């Protein structure tokens, strides 16, 4: 556990990529296989869900630390991180036992899900009393389901490939593929992960997704338009549909197995040739056209899919790439070859081939892009002809050319502190719009400002707070910001009657007064 906690601290304390890779390599060199497997699982985002209610965790921490409730609350407000607050308040450890990471996970953390409160309490005290402050912090992060650290899966893969024992030479692309799908952290998996050759793989395993970069600069800088295959950029759930061993698997980009959520696509899989993997977008689709993504959310939010919702919001897979054919990985084949092979798969009402958009010039394509909103798409995907299907986010071969987002001018009305490094600053904001002479909450946003601008807003909040509700500060309605967002819909759950997708701060409108911000009528017009 100490090695893992030291790794977590090292990753958390630097923003330098090379330093992070070096820390990961040091850990992989020293950790036993069963610990390394668990560490990789957590680092790539497969953290356990919250295993203990925050209320009980705080109650037991307050009791162990011997502090009053109010002091714990004040400490949390100052620190801004629940797991760190507990780690700082607990008394020094009572023993120096150094048990490995896999013991704490397999014998204590995971069994908590089914244990009674007395047992969970005893196990928690056992861990806290055996760990130092750094170990407690990492442990508390795991317990609360909030384990996050500044590394991407690609960075972990890069470190594993660089560390691979001399002579193994396991390519990063191979490691990335082996980390996909369902697997159990254990010494056996670790040996398979780092083996120079792998004769068999889990039958359901998807491929790493190839991700596009936002287009940078002018479209003409990409060269001749004939070098690119252009497709609409769909607004759905990115997924891979796989047919192997007589079974069908539908994987989301987040590596969730979602086959049961989409029975239409499970049925589609049964019609595919054996050994087929298609990359595409799951979309709500009716009468030959996509429905608004809000309709997909109706399905996502239901535990049971009845006949009515299946009829009202049917889905299709808009397929745009073929990754496996006849059980053979074809990702290194040119884009045109994969596309032609995909087109030869038997037609099916729930498999829609992503159409190729034709244009004689970039200027003509710019005009076609204006059709995006009417088509319920986000713009274009630009794919270099002849390119392979790569792993992760790579520059050069795939670009996404999105339409300009919706935007409105809104007034800052509430602010609260952030978390982690931003716990001492007001960084989480609620914005209002005008409705009959009053500001009503419209959207929350957390990103888009520079560090300097955040400090300026923080100073404003401290000077102009007019009310408090817990950590939330109501402020004088004076600051105006342009908010950008991707989608908009009516909502009975929001006071404004409107919900938006992916709101963020596009810029601080120093040139506008609060009374010049947008009104509810302006927002409704966007609908």
Write the layout of secondary structure elements.
Blueprint lengths: L1 H11 L4 H14 L2 H11 L10 H12 L3 H11 L2 H8 L11 H9 L7 H14 L2 H12 L8 H11 L8 H7 L8 H7 L16 E2 L1 E2 L13 E7 L2 E8 L2 E6 L10 H9 L4 E11 L2 E2 L2 H8 L6 H6 L2 E11 L2 E2 L5 H9 L7 E3 L8 H8 L2 H4 L1 E8 L7 E2 L4 E5 L3 E12 L8 E10 L2 E8 L5 H13 L1 E5 L2 E4 L4 E6 L1 E4 L7 E4 L2 E5 L11 H7 L1
Parallel strand pairs: 1-12, 2-13, 8-10
Antiparallel strand pairs: 3-11, 4-5, 4-6, 6-7, 6-8, 8-9, 11-13, 14-15, 14-18, 14-19, 15-16, 17-18, 19-22, 20-21
Q: Number of helical runs?
A: 20
Can you summarize the main beta sheet? 7 strands, mixed
Structurally, the number of domains stands at 3
- Given the C-alpha coordinates, what overall shape results? globular
Measured as a percent range, the helix fraction is: 25-40%
Class by alpha and beta content? alpha+beta
CATH class term of the largest domain = Alpha Beta
The overall average pLDDT, rounded, is 90
The overall strand count is 22
CATH domain fold name of the largest domain: D-amino Acid Aminotransferase, Chain A, domain 1
């Amino acid at each position: 556990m100490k090695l893992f906690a030291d790794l977590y601290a090292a990753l958390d304390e630097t923003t330098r990529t090379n330093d992070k890779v070096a820390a990961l390599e040091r850990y992989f060199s020293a950790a036993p296989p069963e610990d390394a497997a668990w560490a990789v699982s957590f680092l790539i985002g497969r953290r356990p869900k919250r295993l203990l209610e925050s209320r009980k965790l705080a109650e037991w921490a307050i009791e162990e630390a011997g502090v009053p409730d109010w002091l714990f609350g004040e400490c949390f407000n100052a620190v801004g991180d629940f797991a760190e607050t507990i780690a700082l308040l607990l008394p020094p450890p009572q023993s120096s036992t150094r048990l490995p990471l896999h013991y704490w996970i397999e014998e204590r953390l995971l069994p908590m899900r089914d244990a009674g409160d007395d047992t969970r309490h005893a196990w928690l005290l056992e861990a806290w009393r055996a760990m130092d402050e750094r170990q407690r912090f990492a442990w508390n992060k795991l317990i609360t389901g909030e384990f996050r650290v500044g590394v991407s899966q690609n960075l972990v893969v890069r470190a594993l490939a660089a560390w691979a024992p001399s002579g193994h030479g396991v390519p990063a692309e191979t490691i990335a593929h082996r980390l996909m799908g369902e697997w159990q952290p254990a010494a056996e998996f670790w040996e398979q992960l780092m083996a120079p050759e792998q004769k068999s793989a889990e039958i359901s395993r998807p491929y790493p997704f190839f991700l596009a970069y936002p287009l940078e600069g002018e479209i003409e800088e990409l060269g001749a338009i004939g070098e690119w295959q252009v497709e609409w950029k769909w607004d759905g759930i990115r997924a891979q549909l796989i047919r192997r061993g007589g079974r069908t698997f539908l994987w989301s980009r987040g590596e969730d197995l979602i086959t049961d959520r989409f029975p239409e696509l499970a049925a589609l899989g049964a019609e595919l040739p054996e050994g087929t993997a298609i990359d595409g977008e799951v979309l709500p689709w009716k009468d030959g056209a996509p429905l608004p993504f809000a309709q997909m959310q109706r399905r996502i939010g239901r535990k049971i899919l009845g006949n009515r919702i299946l009829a009202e919001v049917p889905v299709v897979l808009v397929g745009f790439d073929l990754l496996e054919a006849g059980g053979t990985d074809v990702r290194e084949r040119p884009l045109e070859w994969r596309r032609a092979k995909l087109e030869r798969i038997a037609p099916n009402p729930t498999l829609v081939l992503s159409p190729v958009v034709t244009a004689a010039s970039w200027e003509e394509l710019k005009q076609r892009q204006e059709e995006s909103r009417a088509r319920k798409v986000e713009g274009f995907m630009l794919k270099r002809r002849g390119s392979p299907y790569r792993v992760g986010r790579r520059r050069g071969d795939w670009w996404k050319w999105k339409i300009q987002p919706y935007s409105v001018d809104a007034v800052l009305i509430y602010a609260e502190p952030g978390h982690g490094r931003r716990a001492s600053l007001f960084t989480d904001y609620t914005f209002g719009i005008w409705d009959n002479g009053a500001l009503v909450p419209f959207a929350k946003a957390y990103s888009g400002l520079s560090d300097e601008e955040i400090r300026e807003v923080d100073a404003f909040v401290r000077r102009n707070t007019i009310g408090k509700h817990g950590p939330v500060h109501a402020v004088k309605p004076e600051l105006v910001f342009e908010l950008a967002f991707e989608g908009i819909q009516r909502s009975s759950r929001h006071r404004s009657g409107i919900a938006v997708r992916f709101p963020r701060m596009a810029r601080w409108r120093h040139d506008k007064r609060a009374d010049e911000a947008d009104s509810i009528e302006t927002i409704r017009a966007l609908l």
